[in-house]
Write a structure and sequence with these properties.
Blueprint (H helix, E strand, L loop, with lengths): L6 H17 L4 H17 L10 H13 L11 H18 L21 H8 L9 H9 L6 H16 L3 H6 L5 E2 L4 E4 L12 E4 L5 H17 L12 E6 L2 E7 L8 H13 L9 H13 L3 H10 L5 H8 L4 H11 L1
Antiparallel strand pairs: 1-2, 2-3, 4-5
Helix pairs in contact: 1-2, 2-4, 4-5, 6-10, 7-9, 11-13
């Protein structure tokens, strides 16, 4: 269906997105998601003005989401994805109901029609076990990574850095040399430069993992500083520099800039595991691997608290509930063991 531009809709959407960004202090990613969800809703209505809203449009939107497929996988949208999009549009409709010119046409109760039924809502919010690599699998994949070209050395250093810090992929992609202190063995995640969750600034001290990871990171930073003459403001894991070779564009070296997003970091880790004949684990799964490892070697509550803070968590409860759940089978085993 060809998109129709409804000027009135565009104006009120712009006001709402400014409200999200400036009043609700949402980041750009959140604002973009809201804009995409609202645009999707508009399309489902046949580009009708928001002032002609009817509850049938909400139910029809839900049906269309249930029929849609994921562009990357070709599979139906998950209940969690559907729930997320419905919530974004519901929040917009609630805001719309309080705006001049819309109060008489939209009620706050109308927004409730964007809710999933109870069964689907439970499915959307249910916790699932996320697969993660063991420390042995990580070491195996790391050992098999190629280490000849500049890009290959950088990719190995990315893997090593992830094991040492458990940092989120966005933080790794945006890290600069000035954020790494090899003497103190730490990563200063300064939210002014590093893309941390909720823009939180904290220091991560390198985890006590295999010495090969620290050696790899040291070699990489030494190479950047001494051979490539990189400075404090340059990227820790720079993107490739493109140039002409025999009349064709190709990688001619490393630039000094960071990647704009974390997609390359995810790709590097995924390929490392596939190359080792293992499942394509994501960078975020390393955090669970490190929590499991910490649970084994931390002999006191204080040590595990420090381990938790190292991942950027204010509360140990977050670490345990998100990364160290106990399955029902393991629960039964532990209780029987205590008995």
């Amino acid at each position: 269906m060809t998109r129709k531009i409804i000027e009135e809709n565009e104006r009120i959407k712009r006001r709402y997105l400014i409200f999200l960004r400036e009043a609700k202090r949402a980041d750009h990613a959140t604002v973009d998601k809201a804009a995409e969800a609202i645009l999707r809703f508009e399309k489902s209505t046949g580009w009708k003005p928001f002032k002609r809203f009817h509850i049938d449009q909400a139910t029809n939107f839900k049906r269309q989401l249930e029929a849609d497929v994921n562009r990357n996988t070709g599979k139906p949208l998950s209940k969690a994805t559907i729930d997320g999009k419905l919530r974004l549009v519901k929040t917009f409709v609630i805001w719309l109901a309080g705006q001049p010119g819309y109060k008489s046409r939209i009620t706050y109760a109308d927004a409730e029609y964007f809710n999933l039924n109870r069964k689907d809502a439970r499915i959307a919010h249910s916790e699932r076990d996320t697969p993660f690599p063991t420390m042995e699998q990580c070491r195996h994949a790391f050992t098999l990574m190629p280490n000849e070209t500049e890009i290959e050395k950088r990719d190995r250093a990315i893997f090593a850095f992830l094991m040492l810090t458990g940092a989120r992929d966005g933080a790794i992609a945006s890290a600069r040399l000035k954020h790494i202190n090899l003497v103190e063995a730490c990563f200063y995640q300064d939210a002014r430069d590093v893309k941390t969750k909720f823009a939180k600034t904290f220091t991560t001290w390198f985890f006590p993992v295999d010495a090969a990871y620290l050696e790899c990171l040291r070699d990489w930073i030494t190479y950047l500083r001494q051979d490539r003459l990189f400075g404090h403001e340059d990227a820790l894991f720079p993107k490739p520099e493109q140039g002409l070779i025999d009349g064709c564009f190709a990688t001619v070296g490393l630039s000094r800039g960071n990647y704009g997003n974390a997609s390359k970091i995810r790709q590097v880790i995924k390929h490392a595991f596939i190359n080792a004949g293992l499942p394509p684990f994501a960078p975020h799964s390393f955090r669970k691997s490190l929590v499991k490892y910490g649970d084994q070697i931390c002999t006191t509550r204080e040590r595990f608290k420090a381990w938790s803070q190292n991942l950027g968590h204010d509360s140990v409860v977050t670490t345990i509930s998100s990364y160290c759940p106990v399955s029902s089978e393991r629960q039964a085993e532990l209780i029987r063991g205590i008995r």
